Amino acid sequence: MLGEMDMRIIRRIMEYKGLVDADTRSDACKVFPNGDRRKRPVFWLTDKEVRWLISEDALKRTAKGYIVTPSLARRIRLGKDGALGQHQNCQEQDIYIPEGVIRKANVNTRANALERLARKKDRQGRLVLNAAEVEAGRRLAKDYALAGLRHVSTQNYMSAGADGGDRHGQQEDKILRSLTARTRLKAANSAMGEGLDKAVMAVCCHDESLESIERSERWVKSSGLTILKLGLSRLVKLYGTEAGVKHEPV
Questions:
Q1: 82-117 confidence digits (pLDDT tens)
Q2: For the whole model, what pTM was predicted?
Q3: What would the pLDDT profile of 174-200 be if each residue is shown by its tens digit?
Q4: Enclosing H/E stretch for 71
Q5: What DSSP string describes 132-200?
Q6: Best CA proximity match to 213, nearest among 224, 226, 227
């Protein structure tokens, strides 16, 4: 499913009637205006962004390059279902904020890879991720966002549920939260270890599908879930998200 950031990219491509050059050997892909490769690129996209949009059928291959899939472009122009809204499923969930208080917040549970996996079931009808693994993934995503590395499109961890009041010292608090989050993030990467961290970070923080990471890392097909669960199991111990089990606070 396409997230908010994905839709922004799509709309920007449409604004320039852009043609995406995804055949380059570099890590960045050019976007040419009016479908004309002879013109100067109007902006660039990362290779991962383009591959994700292709995998979600948001971009269609033509003889010259990739364009926005006509059916998607038509829905956006007509405003059908709000284009972006059709990919949303807002639910009220408990959100952990830096003060350690739980607040209710509306969360789009269809806009990121982790939440989609959280609802997925195996052939026996069991959820592929348990509650502790999902919460550990959310905690990692929160630390990633608070560290200032990237804002997660579905949640605003900076202000979710925060009480009102004056803004004195707000900037200092934000810097402190960022530094603390970076420390926790470093501990999380160390706990997962090289290899496992690639799957967990890709899904929880970079919003990549398991299929996408399997292709980019050249892993055996369908092995991504096993690697992800191994990484999340280590985060469960680190963050202490398993009910009834005490762990040292991170």
A1: 444 444 444 444 444 444 444 444 444 445 788 889
A2: 0.52
A3: 788 888 889 999 999 999 998 899 999
A4: helix 70-78
A5: HHHHHHHHHHHHHHHTTS---TT--TTTTT------TTHHHHHHHHHHHHHHHHHHHHHHH-TTHHHHH
A6: 224
